[in-house]
UniProtKB/TrEMBL annotation:
Pfam families to which the protein is assigned, alphabetical: ABC_tran, ABC_tran_CTD
GO molecular function: ATP binding; ATP hydrolysis activity; DNA binding
Protein name according to UniProt: ATPase components of ABC transporters with duplicated ATPase domains
Keywords, in A-Z order: ATP-binding, Coiled coil, Nucleotide-binding
Matching PANTHER family: ABC TRANSPORTER ATP-BINDING SUBUNIT, ABC TRANSPORTER DOMAIN-CONTAINING PROTEIN
Coiled coil spans: 554-612
PROSITE patterns in the cross-refs: ABC_TRANSPORTER_1, ABC_TRANSPORTER_2
Length: 623
């Protein structure tokens, strides 16, 4: 590998100094740093640097590499934590940006005091004109005289003069931010050899030059996601370590894909209205989910719920309930049993939240009677976030409720439950007061589930949650054994986690909806007038007019679609038979050529039919 000679020289030099005691020169203790719009860059970073370290720092642009260098050099203070230096530590730094006196000469900068890093003084100079000339030659600036003024120089020339000023002085730690910028191949090679053979102190460097990292560095620090991960070896070793990390990530992704397959299974097994797709698409989905179990084992969950709750959960008898002057229920009689999964549907202001508050015991009925089972442990997820403890960190807020949680047949620690809800290891130590709205909503759910309730009352649980978190929540609720009542506008969640729907239409009743959300929509539309309702199985007039087809044309188009689907099924059968024949005549070259021609012809015909189906399906409402 290029640079192997340099590394060999460095290793040989270290082998000769094995008896030397390695001393620590810098410590970072739980250092954090952020910048307004740029956000948080480093969080709770703890590192130590020895006097013989040669560290390369890698990471994405904007990850915080230069910020880390400034922390190490003490040229910038952290927001929290502490940076400590060994007494009398001499630090030389090459930042990405700096200013040189335009009137100064090369001699002033390199040998004088016109530009010096913190802790570096003229008394440390060791070289005369010849030594400076050698360094300037190595950096590709041999054409410059020592009396050349820096004012007219380009930015790259100024940067190399500044680097030369650091190299001519002895130091305990050399910190270089992109030193290979403006150096050609020869200059990079010279700098690598110089640092290996002539620089005796510690070295920390940020550079995108991978060859340079491998030639010079014996350790790598990766700045990623506000953390710093340490690895032994240079760029090649870090690359191998990163590949291993990606392999682990791939395992996690495979688990996520399994969750997606479960969601596909749910979509396929859901109401017919959600699966209006051609038969050949359905067959493909069926093949994908052939080995996926049902989303919920309803019978088993019902048995578990009954064992946890007994026979009585909520009995509502002739209840009258008002929200201020507004009547919500008039003489409501309703029973909720163990294992029931009810969805409450209604427009905003219909009283869904009031009903949940009644069941949670927050609100009392104005008339009638509410009987709650003696074993009921209800958890009420409200739309407010005021009950969260802002003075605690996230994990502490979960552990305040429970350190371990049993959900169905799964037992999770507080940290594992937090991970399910998308909180990474570093995020679980964030103060609750610093969480975003979505994160606080997730924490609210976490704390509810950590109480191990047997009744869940969820008021708009999908507010502020991203799709990945929702999928994780639904996966948990699939196997949750208890009674669940959900008030939500999220159709996907309602159809996924509940079994029975009830509607509130502002008339004081709670209406059972055997047809689920579809029935709710029909009833709600009918209350707005005949023009707003559509007959079951017939597309709304607005959809027909939008398609440009009359009712008769729509019916004919549907017949044509069905005909095309039958053609596709027959063509699929022909493809299957031809493939079977190919397998049987594997040694007959002439027959294989003939069958291959037939296969291509059938596949072309199938592609044409499928294209025709797609074009027609776009014109027909409901497809």
């Amino acid at each position: 590998m290029p640079g192997g000679g340099h590394r060999a020289g460095a290793d040989a030099g270290r082998a000769g100094n094995l008896d030397r005691i390695v001393a620590n020169i810098i410590n970072l203790d739980r250092v954090s740093k952020g910048y307004g719009a740029a956000g948080q860059l480093l969080t709770d970073v703890s590192l130590g640097l020895d006097d013989d370290a040669r560290v390369g720092i890698v990471g994405l642009n904007g990850a915080g590499k230069s910020t880390l260098l400034r922390m190490l050099a003490k040229s910038e203070e952290p927001d929290s934590g502490r940076v400590t230096h060994r007494r009398d530590l001499r630090v030389a730094t090459l930042p990405q940006t700096f200013a040189l006196d335009a009137e100064a000469t090369v001699r002033d900068v390199v040998l004088g005091t016109a530009w010096l890093s913190e802790g570096m003084g003229a008394e440390h100079e060791w070289a005369g004109d010849a030594g400076v000339r050698a360094i300037l030659d190595g950096l590709g600036m041999g054409y410059l005289g020592l009396d050349t003024p820096v004012g007219p120089m380009s930015g790259g020339e100024r940067r190399r003069v500044a680097l030369a000023a650091l190299l001519v002085r002895e130091n305990d730690l050399l910190i270089l931010d992109e030193p290979t910028n403006h150096l050609d191949v020869a200059g990079v090679d010279w700098l690598a050899r110089y640092l290996l053979t002539s620089h005796r102190g510690a070295l920390v460097v940020v550079t995108h030059d991978r060859w340079f990292l491998d030639a010079v560095c014996t350790a790598t620090w990766e700045v990623v996601d506000e953390e710093v991960h340490t690895y032994e070896g240079g760029y090649a070793a870090w690359t191998l370590a990163r590949a291993e990390r990606q392999r682990v990530a791939a395992v996690i992704e495979a688990r996520r894909q399994n969750l997606l397959r479960k969601e596909i299974a749910w979509l396929r097994r859901g109401p017919p209205a959600r699966t209006s797709k051609p038969q050949f698409r359905i067959d493909a989905a069926n093949a994908l989910i052939a080995d996926v179990p049902p989303v919920r084992d309803t019978v088993s969950l019902q048995k578990l719920a009954t064992s946890r709750l007994g026979k009585q959960v909520y009995d509502i008898e002739d209840v009258t309930l008002n929200a201020g002057p507004k009547p919500i229920f008039k003489g409501l009689t309703w029973q909720v049993g163990p294992g029931d999964r009810f969805a409450i549907l209604g427009a905003n202001g219909a009283g869904k939240t009031t009903l949940l508050r009644l069941l949670a015991g927050v609100t009392k009925p104005d008339g009638g009677r509410l009987v709650t089972g003696s074993t009921v442990r209800a958890a009420f997820l409200s739309q407010e976030l005021k009950e969260l403890p802002g003075h605690l960190r996230l994990l502490e807020a979960v552990e305040e409720v429970a350190k371990r949680v049993k959900l169905g047949d799964r037992e999770l620690s507080a940290g594992q439950l937090a991970e399910v809800f998308g909180f990474t290891d570093k995020r679980i130590w964030t103060p609750v007061s610093d969480l975003s709205g979505g994160e606080r909503r997730r924490l609210q759910l976490l704390r509810l589930l950590a109480t191990e309730p047997n009744v869940l009352l969820l008021d708009e649980p999908t507010n502020d949650l991203d799709t990945d978190t929702l999928a994780a929540l639904e996966d948990l609720l699939d196997s949750w054994p208890g009674t669940m009542i959900v008030a939500s506008h999220d159709r996907y969640l309602v159809e996924r986690v509940t079994d029975t729907a009830y509607g509130m239409f502002g008339d004081g009743r709670l209406v059972h909806l055997p047809g689920g959300i579809d029935e709710y929509l029909e009833r709600a539309a009918s209350r707005l007038g005949p023009s707003a309702a559509a007959s079951p199985g017939v597309p709304p007039k607005s959809a027909e007019s939008a398609s440009g087809l009359s009712a008769a044309e729509v019916r004919q188009a549907r017949k044509d679609l069905a005909k095309l689907e039958r053609q596709l099924a027959k063509l699929d059968e022909r493809v299957l038979k031809i493939n079977e024949s190919l397998a049987q005549h594997g040694s007959d070259y002439g027959k294989i050529v003939e069958l291959d021609a037939q296969l291509k012809s059938v596949q072309e015909e199938r592609a044409a039919v499928e294209e025709a189906w797609l074009e027609l399906a776009e014109q027909v409402p409901g497809n």
